[in-house]
Amino acid sequence: MGKRLPSSPFLSLALAFFFLFLAKSSDALQVGFYNKTCPDVERIVRKTVIAFYKNDATITAPLLRLHFHDCFVEGCDGSVLLNSTATNRAEKDAKPNLSLDGFYVIDTAKAELEAKCPGVVSCADILALAARDAVSLATNLVSSGRWSKDYNMYQVETGRRDGNVSSESNALNNLPSSFWGIYKLKRNFASKGLSLKDLAVLSAAHAIGNSHCKSFAKRMYNYTGKGDMDPLMEKSYANKLKKQCTATDTIRVVEMVPGSSTTFDPTYFKLVIDKKALFHSDEALLRSQVTRDYVFSHVNNNTGFFHDFGVSMVKMGRNQVLEGQMGEIRKICAVRN
Ligand code: HEM
After folding, report:
1. Which single residue of 20, 44, 142, 303 has CA 20 to 30 Å from 91?
2. pLDDT tens digit string along 96-141?
3. Which domains does the chain have, with CATH numbers?
4. Does 69 participate in catalysis according to the annotation?
């Protein structure tokens, strides 16, 4: 007769926890979540991002920002991708989101993934992967001097599910403002599980892309309502920006880093130090010891900064994710199933 396992209540409990852990871990956010169910997912997303990038290198910034705006509102659940309906104004239609772009890249990747592995890969994960691929493309040009399609700045955990809730008011209540100071930024980031260091690191996403004049024009024209300039903006730079933006301009955009809107590197920190970054929220990084030290110590440290950026992006990507059976896997990213 074979040996029987001793039937102790402790053993049963331990086994129950073990199986619970197994069930939980296979459903949880992890690198390679789709290895068995859709092994080509990373290749397909990358190929899609590269195709759009080759046509227009400025696509990297909107993809990175899209993931950030997704994660800060209702967690990283693809809710920023949902369209408004007759009865609901979605996140997409909140004022700070009207300048979002790059949705078509996610939709293109999703269409191919639905054809290959129907109902398997979430829109939230496609967005997280596309953001990583975008920033890697923008970085690689700098770090190696030549373009390699295989370069990944960091590994993306996948296994997110798509959420069903998307509301304009949630977006307005959760997205940080470019006019905020360090205290509000710290509180906002802390509410997403992110530290002051993460704030300094992730703000450097403003190394790529553009901003509409209206997001910072007040700093040059009417900072405190008395027709004055923000004293924390370098004067000659403010005057230069005035030539690009009128006080009430709603159309025009300005490069975050002049002459380098598609190159991701820590030179953004140099602009912050020189008081030439566009937003009050960028300048605010000089107002806490932690963020200030980070800015000064990483302005010439590409390798350290790239490493930290990956760590902070992974952390941001864990915010309030839906796992297991929660939410859904959308068929089309802009509409619920
Ligand atoms: C710290 C708080 C932040 C504030 C207040 C902020 C605010 C803004 C604003 C106002 C714009 C310009 C929008 C426009 O007028 O066109 C912008 C652009 C951008 N933001 Fe942020 N942002 C913050 C953090 C982040 C983070 C954490 C990321 C990504 C990890 C990010 C990525 C970007 C990118 C890439 C752009 C350029 C988008 C484009 O060119 O289309 N931002 N941000």
Report:
1. 44
2. 999 999 999 999 999 999 999 999 999 999 999 999 999 999 997 6
3. 31-209+256-316 (1.10.520.10)
4. yes
